Structures are given as C-alpha cells and as structure tokens.
Amino acid sequence: MNETVVLTGLPTLLARRVAERLLDAKGTRVIAVVRSKFREGARAFFEGLPAERRARVTLLDGDAASMDLGLSGAEFKRLAAEVDVIHHTAQATWVGVDEKTAEAFNVRATREALGLARCASHLRAFVLHSTATVSGDRRGLVLESELDVGQGTRNAVEATKIRAEKLVRAAARDVPTIIVRPSLVVGDSKTGEVDRLDGPYLLVLLMLTAPPDFAIPMPTEGNAQLNMVPVDWVGAASVAIGRDPRAIGQTFHLVDPRPPTVREVFEVLARAAGRKSPRGFIPANLTRAILRTPGLERIARSPRAFLDQLANAVRYSSRNTEAILAGRGLDPPPFATYGETMVAHVRERLTAERKRRTEADVVEDPLV
Question: How far apart are CA 256 and CA 1, in angstroms?
Fold first, then answer.
C-alpha cells in the first residue's frame, strides 16, 4: 500500500502507537503535525525507530487547534496535494480539563483538520479519534450509529467530543469520514506504558500505596462491567479500519465485547499487587475520601470521574467493528492478560517517584 498519512496528536501514546502501525506498511509515509513545544518528544520517539521507518517520517511545526493547523500557506497546499489519509488523534481527554481547552483541542482542532480534508485532492479517509463516552450518562445499549439522543454530559470532554463528531458527520457529505470511539483506554498491553495514571489506575495506586494490613474493599458493587481497551490495540484497530474502504461513513466502537466486571478487575489487580481479594464494597462517597489519601493526588487526578463511570451501567454495540476486523487477528486482548502488566508499570513509576523525591530531599554537605 502506497499512502501519505497526516497525523496529529504526537507525542501522545495513542499517536505513537498509530504511527508505529502505519509505518508497518513499507509504502506508508507519515507527516506529523506537531506543536513546537512537543517537537523534541516526537523527534525522540521517531529516532528510536529503525532507520528505514525514520526515513518515511516528516515532522512539521504546527498546531492542530490553530488556523490551517498552524502551517504556512505553502505547507498547507502541499499537504492537501499529497495526503491520502488523515488520522486526527489530537484531543483533550483528561476529564478534569477546563472548558476552554476542551473546546480548542476537541472542536476547533477537528474543524481545522476537516479544513485540510476538504482541500485534499485525493483523500481516501479522514479518521477522527473520538471516545465511546460521548454516550454521557446514558444507560443500557448504545449503538455505533447513535450520537446525540438527549443524553446528559458529565464533563467538558464528553460535551466537546459530541460537537466534534457532529462536525465530522456534517462533513461526510463531501469528505470520506470515519469515526473511531474507544472505551476507557489503558496502557500498552505489552509494556504497560501509559500517558496518565487515572481511571482504573486509581485502584492500582490505592493497592500499592495503602498500608499492608489495610483491607481494600471494592469502590462499588462488583457486578457492574468496566469496559477497557489497551492503547496498542486501539492504534492497530484504528489503522486497519482507516485503510478499509468499507469503513467510510461509519462509526466504530473500539471496545471489549466481553468486558470484565468490577469484581473481576479488582481481583486481577489485587492478585498482581499482592493483596487479598475483596470481600465487600463501600459507598462511592467514602471511596472518594479514600482516593484523596495524601500522596495519591500528586500522581493521579479526578477519582470522581472514574467512579461515575463505574456507576453507569452502559453497554456498547461493536457490530461495525467486528465486521470490519473479522479474520484479521485483531480481537482486543482480555483484561486478564494485561492487568498484571498495568500493576508492574505503576509500581515502577511509584518507585521512580519515591527515588526522585528522596534525592531532592538530600542536602549536600559543603564540608565533604
């Protein structure tokens, strides 16, 4: 496959996993639009790839949330003439983000990326990386074809991602659009690497930092489902969907079709952390108080948002995704196969953080 792909969002882990999967195809060239403050991080990532792959990467200073992606007129015209596929991963996903930032990165950036798509002379696909949580406070089964059905939103991310999807749906009349909606995205299933320790990582942090004799109960009743997918699978599935002509005009839930219950998640994490399995649960308000334990707030934020997700009995249909990915060997890995990796990664980060703080507290003796 010969293709030129414009990628936004570097150096986030999702954008890096998308880039890696794109570059698996020897005929693929990646042009990454990167904010100048993140250029070094993006460059360091690509320098770690084999030389043959690095040769197919171009970094452009730009800003997805600025007019014409922050590119010069000449750069914008050149991209419009060359691009075959756009993977728009730049977005604000932390649920504690303020409304202004969410608006800029989720709505304005999508509008600017669509501007490039409309000017492209031979675009095959525009892939918007969205989120399944556009379902907001809905309960029950959510279809991939559904978007705004009157649901309430719980934070600025959900509200602005709905608006971003509306922009893409409106553009579908003259742009070959695809929307991918992952559920709760966790770290790499093989390495454990993750951008931020939030969501289910709050449970891991609690298990690894609480006193050894403290019996940790579940933060909610154990029969609710917790739908999670690892970022490396999201990247692989998104690239495969973006290359399939059948995907044009459709939306895809990138979810675990057999999500574990909260109890199953808790048991896997507890076992990996060397904790006993839970015997009961505690009310959400008490859990919020526990999650404000001194030390946790330095590493993780927004426990309330995660608890809201646990309390929301929602299920996601993935019929479109299963049809497109059938026979490709791209089924999402079960949580039980990577839960231990999540815990190991958090343990390493906690150890590094303690070491950093210990070294910062050491005062040099000038007489030595």
Answer: 29
